[in-house]
Amino acid sequence: MNTWACRVFLLLVCGTSGFFLVRGAAGFPHAGLWGMGAGFFLFAVSLLLENRLKKVPFRNLAGGLIGLMIGFLLARFISNVFYLDLPEDRRVSLSLLGLIYAVFGYIGLRTGLKKAEELHLPGWELFSKKHPGGGGAKILDTSVIIDGRISDITETGFLEGPLMIPRFVLGELQHIADSSDPIKRTRGKRGLEVLRHVQKQVNVDVRIIDTDYPGVKEVDSKLIEMAREVGGKIVTNDSNLNKVAELQGIDVLNINELANALKPVVLPGEEMNAKIVKEGKEAGQGVAYLDDGTMIVVDGGRRQIGKTVDVIVTSVLQTPAGRMIFGRLKEEPSREAKGKELFYPLDTEF
Which of 87, 194, 305, 313 lies at a 20 to 30 A Cα distance from 216? Predict the structure, then answer.
């Protein structure tokens, strides 16, 4: 039986029971309708409690229940000990008993909830489903889904734990896919295709999370709130989200940083083969790119645009946006060599 069928069944039971119970116990007009209304109110309270309890880990629920039972047992023990000293007035004695049970029940409940967080028993996992944030959950944002590289990363098995995709991220992705701008529409459809591919991968636990934060407008802020709530990490390639999340103590996995870390190390003096595709900012410079997108600025490469040439690396610059390689054409002498050619020995004969 699915969730909606259970809720409809509970609604019918609450409404019908309230109608007949109140109509049979009360003698005022329309008592059954009032009872039905009370049953519907009880149904609404049950749904509210269900939504609240879903966010509470089983460990805390079990600890709170045990603490509540211990509190009631203590209250019963105390009431039995002092039973002879209770006032003869029934209303006063019932009020005093209610006060004793309420105080000790509250203390037991709060103590059980608090102590449950300190317990680490190996058998808990056998009786409870792991919290969505358990096992090092990774929360995907819109940019990293559209980027597409997350599919290759998950397929290699480098990301452990469940992949959490919030419903509001799916909404933003759908909004981009339905955009009138053809570029945005293409990017949105690409993101949806990436998600389908990730869901089909074996040994990848993908979870669509319905949790939302109506009081928070921006998607980035909602991601930070969810990461804080479940104790997970945000997977992104958005540098702004990266900075904001780290300032608030949230762990972030940046795909761009991972890609930069995996780029092959290039040292000055090494040779490489590259195709000059455009001119650089400085006079005489040409620009080439490696297969991974790394920019190579070639001194004297402007006249070689459109040609594949051998380049000798002169320096490497690491920037927040990525890595830049500076080099010169292999057949070109270095600047130091050029400088030396300008000076001739005094004994040179012409």
Answer: 194
